[in-house]
Design goal:
The structure is a homodimer.
Chain A lengths: L3 E6 L5 E2 L15 E5 L1 H7 L2 H5 L31 E3 L1 H7 L3 E6 L9 H14 L5 E4 L3 H13 L3 E6 L4 H9 L3 E5 L3 H15 L2 E2 L7 H6 L1 H9 L7 E5 L4 H15 L8 E7 L4 H8 L23 H10 L3 E5 L1 H15 L5 H15 L8 E6 L7 H8 L3 E3 L3 H10 L1
Parallel strand pairs in A: 5-13, 6-7, 6-9, 7-8, 10-11, 10-13, 11-12
Antiparallel strand pairs in A: 1-2, 1-3, 4-5
Helix pairs in contact in A: 4-5, 5-6, 9-10, 10-12, 11-12, 13-14, 13-15
């Protein structure tokens, strides 16, 4: 915490002390943003200090993070996921340079582990006894796993449409799970009422300003893995808005401390059936709620709770917005699998679907360099993977039948 | 390859040159074992050289591996999975010291990535055009993913009982998948016939001696992560026998080169419904085929193809054998999830189930130190996770219903 100056409201601009259980602006209810002393950080970090660091997790970047320390409790190893040079996929797309950041290899198999690991540390600092959240799935399963590792009980609210894979994680991790027969918005509201009533620690990303600070570590890693030479663009899927805001914060932190010398432009990818943030940018007017019509459950968020920060991030970065159909999402799942060996869930591959479409629409040039973030593992949503890639050929254990199959292939 | 001396038959003892496409002993059909010049390796490695190494994958240990180099093709980042100190789980089990090695965070979410990454490199060295294997699931999905990353076509044979999660991976990675309506043994035999007929590169672990060399890297990592101070025991689930043989080879390699000063005893854990290897050890007679009656699909292997090496490994290590019921496997899944935040597939948690049972039976003492290897991610088999942990509570978005639920909890 030594570099944290406070928490500033993104709506009214008021500044507040950054306490472990700080949530939204006490004055106007706006989201708070954690403020750092960048001059002080810059004195402590350099490309060389980072290169000599042995910590291989999101906690590699302690100078940039709002925590005192990690204590001795055992924790899951979150972050430091691989960044792959995706040469074959780039060729297929007709793009000069493409990297794929596979955040699906995190302990509970999504980028949300970064936020949840942070939430658990802040809940400990706050002296909390129980952590709660609502989620379309990944925030929930990551909270359940990261909390279980240190022994925290959790109460978790998911919409009933959450995929089985994610729900099975929650149950295995021993969370108290409330499946809500309603939309994500209904689920979110019920969780807020319960959190208020029972005084649980709040891990809702749209309320708790620290979670974005966890998520931003994906940007810190990308920059370091690129040897601090940023690509022109960074593409990712957008639902609630917290992740894209966190990614942008990460790059700005690095820029403010002299670790990178230019900022990438963000490519905000939403599903055609649920794109309130991209619509607001495209039409240059305030966002409005939308239906949640997409199979990419993690980004099916009709009422994005982090709209303020997300819209600011896209605009500040001179970002590109692009919406993709469910068919384009499934096609991207196949493409990533076949050319990179990376298996993403629908929302996980949506960023890549957006890169393809942005190229086709001429929104980004073929000579660009791009990082595409895969935000979650395809194993979380097997039925949609089967929908994308089909069923195998089934035969009896008989060489004759095999020869027939081979002839057809 | 500079430290490889050749390939020695574990049955007849004859020695052969180690070629990239070497399979079984040309004289007797026995499994071959890759031989190293340990004196030469010992001159090149030390605790200090390892500590200074930046490579964070299974290729960290090149001196111990039978490859020339990796070339420039993009590869998945396999290995260097976390080793967690499992204090809360140890307390629950009444065990002094327990570590959990989570190999479910590998790129395709199982330990088998280590063997498949090796197979892909050797197939490239052999100038192969297609790689094939049969598998209960994880060898298949890991081959499909690791091959897709470098652009290799694959033909993969799975028994029809393979869980959906694993099959969905194969399809996404673009493998040609043949689902065989029969046992693993039927599937294996059909794949062998096809491999012979079409001249594909053979990634069957019971045939190809290099795969075990990939798998042994899990042991090399465990030792290094323990700061070269080995635990008394290392527990893992056993099916075909290749993994336990590989783990043992890894520890012996380290011992032979002076990197560790004692060898752990292996705890070989099989399912009660399919334990041909453990039965052979317990009754001290040759192994005999068994039915494949367990929900832990990855170790439901009635005819273990790597029996020779596996039995030798268990005996040489003065190992402990213990069989667990399906109920004990599901209970271990809950335990690992709730106390460690680690979600394993049934075969993945079987090692931990065995540790619990071995303690209860007095086969290992409470003051022992143990590493338990989680060999695969629970997301690969969601239905069995739900079976282990149950379904969530379902309510309408209504505070009244929530209050009722809270009262009941």
């Amino acid at each position: 915490m030594k570099h944290v100056l406070g928490a500033k409201c993104v709506r009214c601009g008021r500044e507040w002390p950054a306490e472990p259980n700080t949530t939204t602006c006490p004055a106007c209810g706006g989201m708070l943003d954690i403020q750092y002393d960048y001059a002080a950080i810059a004195k402590e970090v350099s490309h060389e200090t980072m290169a000599n660091r042995t910590e291989q997790s999101m906690w590699r970047y302690m100078e940039y993070l709002p925590v005192q320390g990690l204590g001795n409790r055992p924790r899951l190893r979150v972050g430091w996921s691989p960044l792959y040079r995706a040469e074959r996929l780039a060729k297929v797309l007709g793009l000069n340079t493409l990297y794929v950041k596979d955040d699906g290899v995190n302990p509970t198999a999504s980028l949300k582990d970064r936020a949840s690991a942070m939430a658990v540390v802040k809940a400990e600092e706050a002296g909390a006894e129980i952590i709660a959240c609502s989620s379309t799935g990944n925030a929930a399963s990551s909270l359940a796993g990261n909390a279980a590792a240190v022994g925290f009980p959790t109460y978790i609210f998911v919409p009933s449409r959450a995929p089985k894979g994610k729900v099975s994680q929650l149950m295995i991790f021993g969370a108290h799970v409330i499946s809500v027969r309603g939309s994500y918005e209904d689920t979110f509201r019920l969780s807020q009422q319960a959190i208020e009533r029972y005084g649980w620690y709040n891990r809702n990303a749209a309320i708790n300003p620290y979670l974005m600070e966890g998520k931003k570590t994906v940007a810190l890693e990308i920059a370091e893995q690129l040897n601090w030479q940023m690509t022109d663009y960074v593409a990712l899927s957008v639902g609630d808005g917290c992740t894209i805001a966190g990614v942008w914060k990460g790059f700005k932190d690095l820029y403010a401390t002299g670790m990178i010398d230019r900022l990438p432009r963000l490519i905000s990818v939403q599903a055609e059936g649920c794109c309130p943030l991209n619509r607001a940018i495209a039409e240059n007017k305030p966002w409005e709620p939308m239906e949640e019509n997409t199979l990419a459950d993690s980004i099916a968020v009709g009422v994005p709770r982090n709209a303020d920060k997300a819209l600011a991030a896209i605009r500040e970065s001179d970002g590109v917005v692009v919406n993709v159909s469910d068919e384009e999402i499934l096609a991207a799942a196949r493409l990533l699998g076949r050319t990179c060996g990376v298996f993403g869930e629908p929302a996980g591959v949506t960023g890549t679907a957006g890169v393809k479409k942005a190229l086709e629409l001429g929104l980004i040039p073929p000579e660009a360099s791009v990082v595409s973030i895969v935000t979650g593992n395809g194993l979380k949503d097997t039925p949609n993977a089967i929908k994308a890639a089909g069923e195998p050929i089934s035969i009896d254990p008989d060489m004759g039948q095999l020869l027939d199959v081979m002839e057809r292939l």
